[in-house]
Amino acid sequence: MDTLINILHGTLRMATPIVLVALGGVFTHRAGVLNIALEGMMLMGAFAGVITSYLTGNIGLSIIIAIAISVIFALIMSFFAITLKGNHIVTGLAINILALGITSFILQVAFNRRGVFSDPAIVGIKPINIPFLESIPIIGPILNNQTPMVYASFILLILVIVVLYKTKYGVYLRTVGENIEAAKSVGIKTTLIQYSAVILSGVFCALAGVSLALENLTMFVENMTNGRGFIALAAIFCGRGTPIGTFIFAELFGLADAVQMRLQGLNIPGAFVQMIPFLFIIVVLTVVGVYKKKNRVYRGHKDE
Hints:
The chain is an all-alpha fold. 73% of the residues lie in helices and 3% in strands. The chain is built from twelve helices and four strands. A two-stranded antiparallel sheet has the order 1-2. It has a two-stranded antiparallel sheet with strand order 3-4. Helix 1 packs across helix 10 (228-238) and helix 7 crosses helix 9 (190-217). It is globular, with a radius of gyration of 20 Å. The N and C termini lie far apart (45 Å).
């Protein structure tokens, strides 16, 4: 039982960066923007957060700067993909490559570091002990002593649901994603809506980067996002673009990550252990794809 509780406790921590990125990606998904740049924006958020923490020792300022840098990259993505009507996939991949290149370049030129930037001056974000959770069996040990971003992810999930389904902005956003021409015909400023969706995804990516770099590790490692932005896209796809569905699948992918971390201490080849989260994602995507195909109906008959 203790092992299971420890794995579930680790799942919440490991899944939080994926959850945050995925929730941000829900906005762009529902706005009809394929945001491949989630990975790059998350990496920039992690980098900006670590560097600011190193220079100032101020966590609040680190989060603000991380958000600002990620939003700048979100604006770059929006300009090329939305204003200039560029291919979303190519633009997103370009942003990811740019982020990877910039972080590596700055580390080498400004800090004379390669690969890893770790320093005692970097101030991390510590877990929070909530006394009343200690008395709750099973759930208490899983939820207690988590980092602030873990708790924030649950609050943000509720906020995303409210924004998408209970506000005029959410109606406009979903209308733009479902039929942009119809949205234009009723006077909705579609470009503004899509820009705002990408910017919101940038904010969530920044929080995810901070969670990864200042909560889980307290350092920056080149390409430390390691595909989490693409995993978030998989969670969005599996969750059909809904906040709750996306959240659930993001947590499942975090569970796979927590399991592989747990197995690293056993006598199992390291390469195989590191493959577990990605194998799990492939299996889940395959199952979801088959299920969707089986139940897809066009004009009264199933798609063949």
